[in-house]
Design brief:
By secondary structure, the protein is an alpha+beta fold. It has helices at 4-16, 45-52, 129-132, 146-153, 160-165, 175-185, 198-217, and strands at residues 29-34, 40-42, 57-63, 66-71, 75-79, 84-90, 99-105, 109-115, 121-125, 254-258, 261-265. α1 crosses α7 (198-217).
Length: 278
């Protein structure tokens, strides 16, 4: 599943364009073709196309792992889930097997939601918080301070790895960037959140931001067949590096299962500690 840097990269490309692919901001939606009805979470399929048609794309951005198009009257949100992807192509390009939703835009181009595994979902709503209102704070938001993160951590005894994956605690983090951030912060993934000191919470926040910014700068990670263009996978510290040497100390990277998720860490740099700062 794409995480914050991957979704941010897609939003940036759609918003600003790249060589050979035009920007979408300012374009009018001329119509839509919903090819798999269950892709649409809200509203009904009967309401969707007439309500969407004629609206202009005013902005494109991200909240957590959701990509949004702010339209003239509504918000169009995508959650890519396991295999979803957004493609811009010429209107005369033949369709592909896994196309689920096609938006026809002015300038003879299309925005295509392609999703092989059919887990992705799309919402058209008049208020964005109806979909993303329960998400936690954005980790790159400067309003999130070490002190506020410390308070949030100390409100629970949950282990760090599953807590940081919880989108209601912190929006946008996933398996890759949690493993990378915990390694950089030298925190064991099974550490109870309420055991961290203020200093450790600050270091964790700095580490989260460092790996996210690095991921964004490298256009995310390309580790699945559906995602293209990023190269952050070439700079992983621990993720998918089981048995390889830690870049800090040379100890073999270990892999355990935490909350049904493969979890990678350095046993030497990230020891399990029972006492605060111990």
């Amino acid at each position: 599943m794409p995480e914050l840097p991957e979704v941010e990269t897609i939003a940036r490309v759609l918003r600003l364009g790249v060589p050979g692919q035009p920007a979408l901001v300012g374009r009018c939606i001329l119509g839509a073709d919903l090819l798999w009805e269950r892709t649409l979470a809200e509203p009904s399929s009967a309401e969707f196309v007439p309500r969407l048609t004629g609206q202009v794309i005013e902005d494109i951005g991200r909240r957590g792992k959701f990509l949004y198009l702010r339209l003239t009257r509504d918000w169009l949100l995508y959650h890519l889930r396991m295999s979803g992807d957004l493609l811009v192509r010429s209107a005369d390009t033949p369709g592909e097997k896994h196309d689920r939703l096609i938006l026809d835009l002015d300038g003879a181009i299309q925005l295509v939601f392609n999703d092989a595994r059919k887990f992705g979902r799309v919402w058209l709503v008049d208020e964005v918080d109806r979909v993303v209102g329960n998400l936690g704070p954005e980790p790159l938001d400067e309003g999130l301070t070490a002190e506020s993160l410390f308070s949030r951590l100390h409100a629970t005894h949950r282990q760090l790895k599953p807590l940081l994956l919880d989108q209601t605690f912190l929006a946008g983090m996933g398996n890759i960037y949690v493993d990378e951030a915990l390694n950089l912060a030298k925190l064991h993934p099974l550490t109870p959140a309420n055991r961290l000191t203020v200093t450790q919470a600050g270091h964790l926040l700095e580490s989260i931001r460092a790996v996210l910014r690095d991921g964004i700068a490298r256009n995310g990670a390309s580790i699945d067949w559906v995602y293209r263009g990023g190269d952050f996978q070439n700079y992983f510290r621990v993720y998918q590096r089981t048995g390889e040497p830690c870049p800090e100390c040379g100890t073999a990277i270990a892999r355990i299962i935490v909350g049904q998720r493969g979890t990678h860490f350095c046993p030497h740099c990230q020891p399990f500690l029972f006492l605060n700062g111990g």
